[in-house]
Write a structure and sequence with these properties.
With 73 residues, the protein is mainly α. The chain has 4 helices and 3 strands. Strands 1-3-2 form a 3-stranded antiparallel beta sheet.
Length: 73
């Protein structure tokens, strides 16, 4: 999946999560995948799948913006 190597399975679980809940926090991903959720989120942000929405260093919230835009337009 997208050249993620060992993270492919966790990324697939995270994507399933964001399709169900398009606005998430790192803790949500951690519960759904593994304790390395911050590293996985970083990859998903770099791929343009998630967007950080709070501008904070802690307790960040991420959105699956492309998915949300389909419903808001």
């Amino acid at each position: 999946m997208l050249g993620l190597g060992k993270r492919a399975h966790s990324a697939r679980l995270a994507l399933n999560l964001v399709y169900r809940r398009p606005i998430i926090k790192a803790g949500d991903v951690e519960q759904a995948t593994t304790p390395t959720s911050n590293a996985l989120i970083k990859v998903l942000v770099e791929l343009g799948i998630l967007v950080e929405t709070t501008g904070q260093q802690r307790r960040r919230t991420y959105a699956f913006e492309r998915y949300l835009k389909r419903f808001l337009n």
